[in-house]
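Contributing: when you submit paired examples, paste them exactly as shown. First protein:
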Amino acid sequence: MMRKTRDYDAELRALSDKAKSIKAKKIQQLGELVTGTGADALDLDTLAGALLAAVESADAEEREAWRSRGAAFFQGRGRKAGRRAGGNGEGGNQAGAGEAQG
């Protein structure tokens, strides 16, 4: 019996299409995250600065606090709790959330 020849070009096209689809889905989800958290109300410079600070942060405690807040948000407690407390979606409620005011 002869083996069926593989069409490597078709396989590469299929993989490329799948990679493009995954990238597009990731971009859409990031946009939904920005909108869902209310960060779309921030100007782009502020949002970019906040994200850069998070990426550059080496403080493990601070990152864990952010992770916990994010997990709470995805469990449905994050944004709703902020609205009840008078938050405006722009981080105005941020000081009391993870740090002691003083």
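Second protein:
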Amino acid sequence: MSKWIAACQTDDIEPEDVIPFQHEGVDYAIYRSPDDDIYATAGHCTHERMLLCDGLVMDNTIECPKHNGRFDYTTGRAAGAPVLVDLQTYPVRVEDGTVFIEIG
């Protein structure tokens, strides 16, 4: 069963940045795009499970800090070797400055 979880405040994320969020032992990554939209994905790279919150955000792309694998964080699409498996993405909503992600 899915549920909406409060992950952070919009002020916690700078534009073109990523922050970590953990809920019940699961890591997530929360992004703020250059257009000020908020996105959420799984927190680990699908290649070698590195935390994406330590990666580099450029436009709508997150680059893994270990092997420079890239994903489009708006869709989860893997952008080529060494990452070949897409990231899980999660629905996001913002209410009164609080970012909620739908998990489950």
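If you have annotations for the second protein, write them as plain sentences, like these:
The longest strand covers residues 3-9.
Strands lie at 3-9, 17-23, 26-32, 38-42, 56-58, 61-63, 70-72, 89-90, 92-95, 98-103.
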